[in-house]
Each structure stands twice: as structure tokens, then as C-alpha cells.
């Protein structure tokens, strides 16, 4: 049987340009073994192989007149974001007209007590709204 922790956000979080930012969430939709921490992290209670998922929706942006530079958005999983800061499962892409989506899964080990989060980055000239986010850690090892 799978053990699942799912965090959810459906209101905008403004992300400043050119800096990695930890995504925060508004709700815990599933919290098997009480893995949710501070509405931003999933903390496995035991060592296990997990499949981690993130789903992100960036708002449409308006470009300054005459600015044709392409914008890049990135996301990654981050282990121990307030300590060791070990990242994995990075994804980068060019922003598209209108909203931009990133849906990523990544299999890596969850270590007992080691919190895992999702960080995002962009290179727009102004803060950019991350409108929606989901973050899931799932394992069948328990």
C-alpha cells in the first residue's frame, strides 16, 4: 500500500527574479504518517525510496514594450532547504505566452527526518506569480 503526502496551493505566491525560492502551500490534502511540515516541506519518517512529484503553474506575464527577451523558469526538489541544501530533479524551460506549466516527477531516496521541498526560479525583470502548485511524496516501502 502506498504512503502519500500531498501539499496544495491555489493562490498566487510572488517569486522574485534570479533567486531560488521555496514554494509554500496552503493545504495538506494527504498526510500519511504525518509527513507534512510547515506547509512547505515533506519529512519522511523512515528511509525509503520515494517518487516525488511537483506541478506548477506560472501566471501569464506582460513584457515591457520592446522587450523580446525569452524568459526562463526553473524548478527543483531541495533536500534540507534550511540546512545542507542538496538539490535534485531540476527542470528548466522557456516561458510560453500565457500561463506556463511544469509537471515533473523524480525518483530518489527519502531519508528519515530529512525535509524535502520545491524551489522555483525565474529570470523575468519583475516578481512573477506562481499561481498554483502541488507537491507529492509517495512510497510503497512501508
Write the layout of secondary structure elements.
Blueprint: E1 3-9, E2 13-15, E3 21-22, E4 27-31, E5 36-37, E6 41-42, E7 48-58, E8 72-79, E9 86-94, E10 100-110, E11 116-122, E12 128-139
Antiparallel strand pairs: 1-4, 1-12, 2-12, 3-11, 5-6, 7-10, 7-12, 8-9, 8-11
Your description of this structure?
- By secondary structure, the protein is mainly beta.
- Helix content is 0%, strand content 56%.
- It has no helices and 12 strands.
- Strands 1, 2, 4, 7, 10 and 12 form a 6-stranded antiparallel sheet that branches. Strands 3-11-8-9 form a 4-stranded antiparallel sheet, with no helix packed on it. Strands 5-6 form a two-stranded antiparallel ribbon.
- It is elongated, with a radius of gyration of 16 Å.
- The mean pLDDT is 92.
Amino acid at each position: 500500500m502506498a504512503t502519500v503526502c500531498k501539499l496544495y496551493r491555489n493562490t498566487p505566491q510572488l517569486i522574485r527574479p534570479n533567486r531560488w525560492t521555496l514554494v509554500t502551500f496552503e493545504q495538506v490534502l494527504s498526510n500519511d504518517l504525518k509527513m507534512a511540515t510547515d506547509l512547505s516541506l515533506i519529512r519522511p519518517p523512515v528511509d525509503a525510496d520515494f517518487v516525488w512529484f511537483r506541478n506548477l503553474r506560472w501566471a501569464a506575464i506582460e513584457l515591457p514594450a520592446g522587450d523580446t527577451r525569452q524568459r526562463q523558469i526553473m524548478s527543483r526538489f531541495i533536500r534540507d532547504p534550511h540546512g545542507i541544501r542538496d538539490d535534485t530533479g531540476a527542470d528548466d524551460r522557456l516561458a510560453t505566452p500565457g500561463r506556463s506549466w511544469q509537471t515533473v516527477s523524480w525518483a530518489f531516496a527519502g531519508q528519515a527526518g530529512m525535509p524535502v521541498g520545491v524551489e522555483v526560479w525565474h529570470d523575468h525583470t519583475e516578481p512573477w506569480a506562481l499561481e498554483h502548485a502541488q507537491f507529492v511524496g509517495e512510497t510503497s516501502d512501508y
